[in-house]
Amino acid sequence: MNPSLNRAITAERMRTLQAGATTASVVGPTRGRHRLRNDDQDNGGTVKYIMLVCADESIELSPEEGAQMGPATEAWVEEMDRRGIRLQGDRLRPVSDATTVAVRGGEVMIADGPFAETKEQIAGYDIIDCADLDEALNVAAKHPVARFGKIEVRPFWTE
Fold this sequence. Notes:
Layout: H1 3-18, H2 23-27, E1 47-56, H3 63-82, E2 86-91, E3 99-104, E4 107-112, E5 120-130, H4 133-142, E6 150-155
Antiparallel strand pairs: 1-5, 1-6, 2-5, 3-4
């Protein structure tokens, strides 16, 4: 698919989500990967999700954008806390402070930096408790970092 067309489709989907549409109207009813509701949801209960807040550390916000980010994030946190949706969350130190651990053949290997060699890195996380995937996606769409980064929404395993 043409990258600029893909960006336009993505932008349109985000506008639709921010307007309060359901997942079906955003991703289409035939997209098998996306569910309207979490399959693990118990009869009428809520579902716990992690939001991985991802950003490209090389992106520099304008002075105006940078000045707005703190207050916008604080407002988002206050709203989600007040609504009882956000259970926990925090920023992470930059990827230059990361250490990766792996065990191969019984040997512990330690490397400085992140495991993934990508431009976008996990900058923070939030654990949210929502009625369904639609609500979780709407919460993610309201996060200020979604304007220049990406928010991955993933449900927790349930027993």
